Predict the structure of tRNA-(Ms[2]io[6]A)-hydroxylase.
Amino acid sequence: MKTVDIQPVKDFLACETPQAWLQTALENQSILLIDHANCEKKAASTALNLMYRYVDKPDLLTRMSKLAREELRHFEQVLAIMQQRNVDYVQLSSARYAGGLREHMRTSEPGKLIDVLIVGAFIEARSCERFDSLAPLLDEELAEFYRSLLRSESRHFMDYLKLAKQYAKEAGVDAAEVDRRVAFFAEKEAELIQAPDREFRFHSGPLN
């Protein structure tokens, strides 16, 4: 498999995944897979919601349509692995991660769309970083699968970030303001990733 350079992803994020989270992931691989499947569904849903909300933005429609298809394909792949490993798809409570980011988003345009896209970039970047961090620790089949996701996840991160900058420029928002929002969410994202959590999830912090 061709190596994917995810250094831009790592540079974008303000911290690495804690080692304690990685250890918990190895000890809870069934939950890891179930919540990974949930994350793929949510990512597709987010893309579709943006398509419905911003029908006047052709570039967004095109990129989100492609992203939604890829995320649903990943969902199907995770389901197949779960079935092979006799992992039942059960209901799990949501991690605080995405909600913790979204609570800081602005509610009026154009700030709302810019923040939605920046948050999307962070979620995709963290997913990519976690796949990369987990792969060397997992069995060959799961490691190969997670490595196969790196290219698309890193591209999704860039798609979201490029769209945020594009629509900010079109709305007359200064580029420095976008950079400030990225720095703000980078700080909030790192806090969520490093703060202790009560339940293990794909985007949780380390357990208490």
Q: What stands out?
A: The chain is about 70% helix and 0% strand. Helices lie at 7-12, 19-27, 29-53, 58-84, 97-102, 111-134, 140-170, 175-194. Residues 17-194 form a domain with the Ferritin fold (CATH 1.20.1260.10).
